[in-house]
Amino acid sequence: MFDNKITAPPNPTTSDSVSQASSSEPSEIFSPAEFLDIARDDNSVTARAAKLFKTTPETFVNWRWQMRHQVTSLAEAREWIDMNEAESLGFSKLDQIFHAGVTPYYLSLAKQDTSSQLCPIRLQALPRVEELNDRYGVSDPLLEKEHSPVREVVHLYPDRVAFCVAQLCPVYCRYCYRKRRDNESGLHFNRAIIDRGIEYIASNKAIRDVLITGGDPFIASDGAIESLLERIRAIPHVEIIRFGTRTPVTLPYRVTQRLAKIISRFHPVFVNTHFNCQEELTLEAKVAIENLVNHGIPVGNQAVLLKGVNDSYERMHALLRGLLMMRARPYYLFHPHNVEGTEHLRPSVDVGLSIMRKLRGNITGFAIPSYIIDTPSGKVPIGHNHILGRDGEDIILEDVRGEIWREKGVFTPNFET
């Protein structure tokens, strides 16, 4: 079915990103050698998924093919996996609220039958009828519109901005806090919007750090990404450039050695990605991360705590260990935003605090992310309070084993902040 199907991506744009493949770009962009090497192993995700989707490995590792063949409807999903009732109703009742879109690669990671109602991949990617019921969800939980001095630039902290240059994503995550923008179009690498954003950043000398986000900014041509980096790096007061992208997780074939080499020309550049569960830690994802870190690009991971996905100590521990083995450092664990349609995925903060407490002392310190609640005024770290009290200049602590410890002489008398 999919070999002959050519469809426009969700939210079609007039940009120069996905739809315009430059004939001057080398063929390895579309069938990168490092991923074709994996496909030679018949047991690899790539080899098995290519067979499932009735195409060749050379075609399957083409990231543009993946974007053109996103699974977006109930009929398409049924071609490849068995659908349970909650998912089937979700597709039919939610298509006018928040569209679905899943790359063949990411869908191939899901359990293909309905034996488990809690497949972590399906929970993240496929609509469910539970999304219709949410007591607390709102459309813009971070009030981003109020912090946008120009369109697509979110300026909350004095020294940094989030620059939302992209609109398309390989997978439209069901818990996305920007799903309110689903009915908008023409935002993906829109030249006029980028021009105004660059002008705003250049005019504000307090801005030292630019986060390029979206959507997913890696869903653009190498040339478009390179041009954007050139323009931002030309601003003298911008010191740090960051990307927020989930492509290593949902479309690893996009993160090629060639792309990493382009990005590395503009150091210091950092990439934050978004693995949520151990099922996403495939060999393909490992190669994508290696392509970045081997070019000197530090990779951090921002996970979201989700029911049925990673809301146990055992599953979180496995995720964090796997990330370290891939050289992606755990950075944040976000408590899920109160975005509409996500109550069924939001665990109690008690669950998150319990997981974080168990991690301390049971995994190396730099594997432990900061547990965060994101508010309209910024990120607030939360965690178990190990400070039991103060006795003069001494602090009384509960250690990681639950025992009491007095550390002497650590307080300054009459200290004022």
Question: In brief, what are we looking at here?
Answer:
The chain is α/β, with parallel strands linked by helices and 417 residues long. Among the domains are: 2-19 and 26-132, no CATH class; 385-417, no CATH class. It contains 15 helices and twelve strands.
Architecture overview:
With 417 residues, the protein is α/β, with parallel strands linked by helices. Among the domains are: 2-19 and 26-132, no CATH class; 385-417, no CATH class. The protein is built from 15 helices and twelve strands. The strands form two sheets. The chain has a nine-stranded mixed β-sheet with strand order 1-2-3-4-5-6-7-8-9. It has a three-stranded antiparallel β-sheet with strand order 10-11-12, with no helix packed on it. Helix 10 runs parallel beside helix 12. The longest helix is centred in the middle third of the chain and has 13 residues, at 191-203. The protein is globular and about 70 Å long. The termini are far apart. The model is unreliable at 1-28 (pLDDT under 50).
Mean pLDDT: 88
| Poorly predicted runs of 5 or more residues | 1-28
Distance between the termini: 66 Å
Largest sheet: 9 strands, mixed
Proportion of beta-strand residues: 5-15%
Helix amount: 25-40%
Based on Cα principal axes, name the global outline. Answer: globular
